[in-house]
Amino acid sequence: MEPCQSLALLAGSLGLASSLVAISTDFWIVAMGVSSAHSGLWPKGGQDDPVKGYIHVTQSFCILAALWGLVAVGFLVLSCIPSLSAPGRGPLVSTVTTFAAALSMLVAMVVYTSERWGQAVHSQVQTFFCWSFYLGWVSAFLFLCAGALSLRAHCGAQRPGYESL
């Protein structure tokens, strides 16, 4: 197994794990004031407090990124096992799916960041982005790294030539 493939598998696995943890935890925003509170991507909106549209967009793209990441890690594992992968196709498919996961997570994070950044500020309450939010950005970066490493593994792989016939 070549080093770029193993590093791509490591980065893809870490990206998938961090995106799943970021999606499932409720520490995207912390509000500090008289009391403190935190919220995530799954707020409990009632009849009088509906969930905003940007939260639905962020949820959808985060789930899509996790699914793309799962497919990418699966193809990265298969590309590391020569008997199970098609010659030269495993890293290419994993590259495309990893970049799709990175793009989906980037869209989710940009939408969430831009909407939360522009919200009105209360003088009595301070809000901060918290660790789940930052873990989402880390997963986008890890997916980008995994895609670049997988692309490097695909471009650097030896192609069967006339000598092998």
From TrEMBL:
It is found in: Cell membrane; Cytolytic granule membrane. Belongs to the PMP-22/EMP/MP20 family. The keyword Transmembrane helix applies. It comes from the Eukaryota. Regulates cytotoxic granule exocytosis in effector lymphocytes, thus acting as a critical mediator of inflammation in a broad range of infectious and non-infectious diseases. Essential for cytotoxic degranulation of natural killer (NK) cells and CD8(+) T-cells and for the activation of CD4(+) T-cells following infection. Plays a critical role in CD8(+) T-cell and NK cell-mediated cytolysis of target cells and contributes to the cytolytic activity via the perforin/granzyme pathway by enhancing exocytosis of LAMP1-carrying lytic granules. Pfam families: PMP22_Claudin. InterPro entries: PMP-22/EMP/MP20-like (IPR050579), PMP22/EMP/MP20/Claudin (IPR004031). The keyword Membrane applies. It is a multi-pass membrane protein. GO terms for biological process: defense response to protozoan; inflammatory response; killing of cells of another organism. Keywords: Cell membrane, Cytolysis, Inflammatory response, Lysosome, Membrane, Transmembrane, Transmembrane helix. GO terms for cellular component: cytolytic granule membrane; plasma membrane. This is Protein NKG7. PANTHER family: EPITHELIAL MEMBRANE PROTEIN-RELATED, PROTEIN NKG7. It comes from Heterocephalus glaber (Naked mole rat). The chain crosses the membrane at residues 7-34, 54-78, 90-111, 131-151.
